[in-house]
Amino acid sequence: MELDKSLISGSIPLLVMKLLEAGDLYGYQMIEELRRRSDDTFHLKAGTLYPLLHGLEEKGFVTAYEGEAAAGKPRRYYHLTERGREALREKEAAWNEYTRAVGQVLRGGACCAGA
Amino acid sequence: MELDKSLISGSIPLLVMKLLEAGDLYGYQMIEELRRRSDDTFHLKAGTLYPLLHGLEEKGFVTAYEGEAAAGKPRRYYHLTERGREALREKEAAWNEYTRAVGQVLRGGACCAGA
DNA sequence: TCCAATATATAGATTCCCGATATAAGGAGG
DNA sequence: CCTCCTTATATCGGGAATCTATATATTGGA
Q1: Which residue's CA lies closest to nucleotide C19 at its C1' atom?
Q2: What is the side-by-side order of every strand in the sheet holding B62-67?
Q3: How far is the CA of B69 from the C1' of D20 (A)?
Q4: B91 with B12: CB under 8 angstroms?
Q5: CB-based contact B105 A18, cutoff 8 Å
Q6: What ranges do the domains of chain B cover?
Q7: Which residue on chain A is closest to B33 by alpha carbon?
Q8: Which nucleotide is the nearest neighbour of A25, by CA and C1'?
Q9: Of the candidates B59, B82, B85, B97, which lies 20 to 30 Å from B104 by C-alpha distance?
Q10: What is the CATH topology of the domain spanning A11-106?
């Protein structure tokens, strides 16, 4: 089943930064990692990822450096900065608050006796 | 804290249809209900809701009818159709699958041991 | 040789939500 | 009486985010 693309909206930076928390990765690797770690649920597109990475770089959340290229084009690795880790913690908190609120609505709303 | 607006993307139709599952509501009421049931987390805007309702109507997920107006403009009530209930079940399933996948990535990915 | 996969990158189109604005009626306060 | 706020619905334009399509470059398999 194809997930509503729009559902993923907004959480992609969170997911990408989370991937980088454990160690530096290059773009293509993030796409594969995300697919693997989500049980094939997320198929992040290259056209989505690279502009996003450039944006994170501008904000100072990640830094980039050229790495060894075993084959093909040189690999561009990304590293999560301290500011990026801070932003990641904030985004995780926002995500948790958001899903809690949605879950509450789906379960029938805040409060007590039914509706 | 202001939630990243983009996080809400895509889940608004789900939330609105969920509100209508329990009974017919008019637009303004949905805004207040959603705010209440989410502990003031979601502040759905009129400029978001009404075009959305028209869209749901076009898809056959809701039907609309004029109701008694205690004051001011006549109230336009919305009713969730059988097709709408079906769509709601699908959207709820998609939401659950999506949050499960995000949670899995945030906890460190699919794979082996506990997770 | 041609195609697929790896690897990065940009531009255009689309979708989605919000802010601003308009309409309309009733009640409160000056 | 008149103005402002609240209720209530509605539309439009802007901005943000993602996808599709495309471009470039190299390696390995059919």
Answers
A1: B47
A2: B25-26, B75-80, B62-67
A3: 48
A4: no
A5: yes
A6: 11-106
A7: A109
A8: C7
A9: B85
A10: Arc Repressor Mutant, subunit A (1.10.10)
Under 8 Å between Cβ of B68 and B76:
no
CA of B93 to C1' of D3 (A): 51
Instruction: State whether B98 and A18 contact (CB < 8 Å).
Output: no
First and final CA of chain B: distance in angstroms? 30
Q: Are A84 and A67 in contact (CB under 8 A)?
A: no
Cβ pair A15:B94 closer than 8 A: no
Q: Is A69 exposed, middle or buried (0-12, 13-18, 19+ CB in 10 A)?
A: exposed
Cα distance between residue A115 and residue B22, in whole Å: 8
Q: Provide, in whole angstroms, the distance separating residue B36's CA from nucleotide C26's C1'.
A: 25
pLDDT tens column, B46-97: 999 999 999 999 999 999 999 876 666 789 999 999 999 999 999 999 899 8
Q: What is the total residue count of chain A?
A: 115
Question: pLDDT-based confidence at B110, cuts 50/70/90?
Answer: low
Which positions of chain D lie under 7 Å from any protein Cβ?
6-13, 16-28
Q: What is the pLDDT of residue A112?
A: 45
Q: Which residue, chain included where needed, has tokens 């693997």?
A: A36
Please state, as a whole number, how many other Cβ atoms lie within 10 Å of the Cβ of residue A32.
Answer: 11
Decide if pLDDT at A114 tops 60: no
